[in-house]
């Protein structure tokens, strides 16, 4: 009997690091004023399919016992946090204050075939800003800045955020006289997966493009700059349209807002488009330069209408989502994440003998009231065995009750240093 | 399109309190040295049914699209955290250090018919201590002490923990010459629901007991004392058996360990037995004296063998589980929980005009680096409207950039007090 394949679970020494990550992400989201919401894991299938997405494999749920009530709605597990957000905002519209800034850190489920780097259950960490009618463009720059700050705090150095604006691609293709731009955008978006040759071939074979036009479509997708020079490079392609100008202006504004981040973190990458999604302006794809095969680890963008299928209000927004589990699992596998201790305990109070248990319990309690994580060894076995337990669990300090002429003492199990200590004032050294 | 009935979701102002609760519970668990684990929401049905439990309504999951791979295991959502713990310990046995002390705070799912106070998805907050072969009895006392500490921190005053030991009931009934004690225990366990008359009737009708014997069975179940006097009251019933003596000794030890908690919090309640569960010694049921109809809000006990159905090792343990959602929902409904602010933001930086956005962003950033939650109003609308936004979201401070001869100023929106402030040193008043 083992856990189901395609699902991931961590040992305590990895989970303690995952918890630190989740705390750091939450703290950063909150520092920018995003409030927490959680939605049920389960939505009606009609809600999950409201945007017509069918490329995500949905899990449906049914009661095992009994025949199942015919009146029961058809239910499924959410496969992202955006559809539930749309339903939540529509349902609680009158109780929310706009602009509504929410974060949501929850597991989502997809019925993927198990394969490396694909999980059937994973954490998504989302932020979105939603407002009535309009959202200023500077929020489009705030999203990547927040994600960069998180990755910096987590010590992930090779993070790169690729940014584009769908209006640039659409405007450019329209300027080339292409009417149905969607399949073209979709093919150019695959540039990093299928390469230049692949894009040209698919444009010719799937859209029936002449080779010269296909080259011109590829040309814009090949532009990827860490600065504002993309503007000149697009202009040099000699295509004009109002939409293209608007897209370039917006992308230029966003890139300029992010100019103070370290060079190379932010890239204007004119190939990306986030597939068929409902994004209408800025789009993001975050990657690790160190692990290109890992693909996109966060993504998002701006949309014109979050809740269109649920209520008749125009609620534009911009948001971004970090796919935490795949990233975390990769860094664990690559040994870029060192396991933490197997226990949150900071101090093991040595249990000397049965007569002194009350005294040991009381000492533990004094330390605990002062905010420390403390446990007693369960039984008064040999001291060496108790210390071995501490060391195996990664507990950094052992506490010794007064003995003979000695008072309380505490031992740093890493340095081996042992010294007198008062349980009402002692603190672990901040070095740890 | 609304959320599915039987599922609960909170507005931001309630969720912020739920998060504080979850933090407090986690912090307390960690302070006693319990490590965090999480298991997948999904287990094989065979795992979920391994202990033969069928009274919990299990949700099965299937892929919506495609025919479903015939080789796929039958999968279901976990309905508690104990079965996944058993599977986890069996699967990772060689990587864990024993005694293994884990906490687990996750949602679980049950296909209940929607009704008041019953949810199909809810948080459970579990701790368990598991060891090879033996676990000292003082852990049986630590569990209620930890839960009491949590409820005290959460400001829940009417909490009462009812404690019994299954050996007391079983030993007593055996001492009365009853061979099949299970149905008798089961009926006496229902005392708080069906009353004395109900217990007598069911003992006579369902087990075919003589009225005199039924009265003697009821007599032990009626004993409920806040101190050690239950021992004398049991002895006064004149029944003897070795198992009864052992049970009384154990319960007496546990009650004695908890003697320093405020009077009335801990009750030796000889009726409770946790139904058909796999508990073998101490059992717990926590309730709110204020809301008896709410029923059990936490429960647990000691078991001889956690993983018996998965590996051939004897792993006894003791644990307790808080059913958070039902408790939280009840206290929200009864207005015992006041809504928090609609946002974690502590300071709203007023956005004076477009020219000064960079300056406002920088001020926000300085405050944020110092650990504060800060946002800018999105657009430079009238100050009064920006302040109204802060007040509607429950943001306690508004920050004003230097203007004319004035420097930075901060306004406490509750007191109305406004004063000069330096963004590199200012702190909100600790009163909040």
TrEMBL record, chains A, B:
Q: Does the keyword Lipoprotein apply?
A: no
Q: Which UniProt keywords apply?
A: ATP-binding, Ligase, Nucleotide-binding, Protein biosynthesis
Catalytic reaction equation(s): tRNA(His) + L-histidine + ATP = L-histidyl-tRNA(His) + AMP + diphosphate + H(+)
Looking up SUPFAM superfamilies in the UniProt record yields: Class II aaRS ABD-related, Class II aaRS and biotin synthetases
Task: Give its E.C. classification number.
Answer: 6.1.1.21
Say yes or no: keyword Protein transport present.
no
Q: Name one GO molecular function term.
A: histidine-tRNA ligase activity
PROSITE patterns (alphabetical): AA_TRNA_LIGASE_II
The record's section on Pfam families has: tRNA-synt_His
NCBIfam families membership: hisS
User: What is this protein called in UniProt?
Assistant: Histidine--tRNA ligase
Which lineage do the record's taxonomy fields give for this organism?
A: Bacteria, Bacillati, Chloroflexota, Ktedonobacteria, Ktedonobacterales
